[in-house]
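Sync notes, pocket subgroup
Present: LS, DG
LS reminded everyone that the earlier model was apo-only. Rerun requested with 4'-deoxy-4'-aminopyridoxal-5'-phosphate included. Inputs:
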Amino acid sequence: MSRTSPSPRVGRRPDATEVVARVIRPEIRALSAYAVARAQRMVKLDAMENPYGLPARVRARLDAALGAVAVNRYPDGPGDAPRAALRRALAVPEELEILLGNGSDELIQIVATALARPGAAVLAPEPSFVMYARSALLAGMRFVGVPLARDFGLDRSAMLAAIERERPAVVLIAYPNNPTGNLFARDDVDAVLDAAPGLVVVDEAYYAFSDQTFLPDVARRPNLLLLRTVSKIGMAGMRLGYAIAAPEWIAELDKVRPPYNVNAFTQAAAVELLTDTDWIADQARAIRSERSRLETALGRLSGVAVFPSQANFVLARVPDADAAFARLTDRGILVKNLHGSNPLLANCLRITVGTPQENDALLGAFAEAGR
Ligand code: PMP
């Protein structure tokens, strides 16, 4: 038989599209990859990064530490040295444990993966950080979103009713909240902690700009896990988040953590950057002061409403967010357009606080372009 003649017994090999359609979960096929805006040569005010670089003396120490990393070796799995540095920097009590993640994004995924029994639910107020719903979906959990009140506070009775009805394995509360920027009332969060039958994650990604924390509560609340990140305080490129909770929680989550999730460069950098935290506090102070300047200046523009923020960004409602976003982009300024993402965020832009010069550029562009 000639090599080129088709064999009647060998079927056509399915192409990639067909195999993908057969084996990839439909809910994943229906998603788009997490969108990150292109920002080359733009004033980048879209992603809650700290706009300041490292001070020169800190940069020099960091360069030396990175030069000494044994790149031929795997990193320390649990990251003992950065965990000790964090414990010292934050005064984490001895009876609590710390788990490191490749960003707090990874820790949210680890929590969802560990808790994803069939039918288990993730509950969070909405709008909140988009990765909560996404991590639930990826882990195969149900996501229950409870709308915030019109002032972006927690709707306490709706939250408690949903907790009673859904018995969620985990409730996620961003404190302050992204994208609204406000801190929920403490007693509303306490009511959620009292009512929740499972874990409650209080995500303090923006802690440096609010100074409000549930850290002292972790030791007496067995269902509370605190999440923090270094991303908003000048180290977003490092990808380092951490969870603080009772050792019983951390021991289980540690089984889900990929073995070498925090790389050796990040570990060395964290130890170096967290030994002296004055520069972090100085930058956070500058960001807060620019935040109030931005809030006041934006609030003076006619037709613009600014929501009070305890984070490193400002949420503003403008007459036409799509048009304002396009005009700002044309002028080289990138912000986040939230219009269309949730009815409560109609015509809202989320503007990360930049350097004084960047904020001036934003205000100038607003004034020039009209709202
Ligand atoms: N939590 C909240 C509330 C956030 O807004 C973000 C970042 N957008 C994260 C967690 C994730 O931070 P990272 O993965 O950079 O630590």
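DG: The chain has 14 helices and 13 strands.
LS: Residues 18 and 194 are 49 Å apart (CA to CA).
Action: DG to write up.
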